[in-house]
Amino acid sequence: MAFPSGSMEFPGKEDMSYMRELLQMIEREGVPAPAPIEQRWTAGSSASLSIAADVDPDSVHSWVRCVVSSRSNTSSEWPFGTPRN
After folding, report:
1. E-strand spans in 1-85?
2. Which of 5, 25, 28, 69 could make an S-S bridge to 62, C-beta 3.0–4.6 Å?
3. Residue 50 is part of which domain span?
C-alpha cells in the first residue's frame, strides 16, 4: 500500500501519523508482529503500474510492508509453507 505524503519541497506528516497509528493498533489489539515493519518513500512516477503512480514527479509517496524472511531451508522450521532460498 502506498499513499501520498506531500512533495519534495513540502513533505507531509501523514506518513508518520500512519505509522504511529499502526504501531498503537498492533500494541492495543495484541496483533503478533514477529517481523520488522518497513516504511519507505518514493517519488511519483509516470509508470501506471508503479506503487507511486502520479503525474507529478515532485510528489512523495510512503509505503509500508512487513518484512518476512526465511532463516531455514527446511519446511519444518519455516512456518509459512514452502521455504524460499
Report:
1. 2-7, 37-43, 59-66
2. 5
3. 2-66
